[in-house]
Amino acid sequence: MMSEQSTFSIHETSERSGLSKDTIRYYEKIGLLPRAERKASSHRVYSEQDIQTMSLITCLKKTGMSLEDMKPFLQMSLESDLNDFPEEREMLVNYQKKVEDQIASLQQVVDFIQDKLEQRSMFPERCSLEAENLVTGIAKKKTFS
Predict the structure, then answer these.
(1) Are 69 and 39 in contact (CB under 8 A)?
(2) What sequence ranges are listed for the domain HTH merR-type (predicted)?
(3) Nearest partner of 33 among 23, 43, 18, judged by Cα
(4) What tens digit of pLDDT does each residue of 14-70 get?
């Protein structure tokens, strides 16, 4: 059992991890987080390691990784060498490539906006954005005449 000094209430854990209390409970329910230990009053208590795991989940979510894909990473110890897990390492490499592609696409959008600001006009001879998915629903609906 955890010592009293090293435990946090779900409220404190929510504040420290940036996850809502409902999200923490949901992650426990689906097995992404281990079931929280309980005080005699049946209130959940969390350790610093639990909070670190929640931070890892938040970081992995930012890569676009699904909750299901995160499970093998969360089962590794904090000291695990990723090179000992070639499938998981390859998965991270693939997510890195995906994020790099997103950055490149967003840079095209930034360049387009910068070009429009420099031209002081919204009327291009042609649109230099390569991917169709860069055009937002709003831009698709509006036409200039």
Answers:
(1) no
(2) 7-76
(3) 23
(4) 999 999 999 999 999 999 999 999 988 989 999 999 999 999 999 999 999 999 999
Provide the token pair at 143. 């036409």
Name which of 59, 63, 55 is nearest 97 in CA terms.
63
Give DSSP secondary structure letters for the chain.
Answer: ---GGG-B-HHHHHHHH---HHHHHHHHHTTSSPPPEE-TT--EEB-HHHHHHHHHHHHHHHTT--HHHHHHHHHS-TT--GGG-HHHHHHHHHHHHHHHHHHHHHHHHHHHHHHHHHHT-S--SS-----GGGS-HHHHH----
Q: What is the pTM of this model?
A: 0.73
Residue 58: partners with Cβ closer than 8 Å, 6 or more residues away: 17, 18, 19
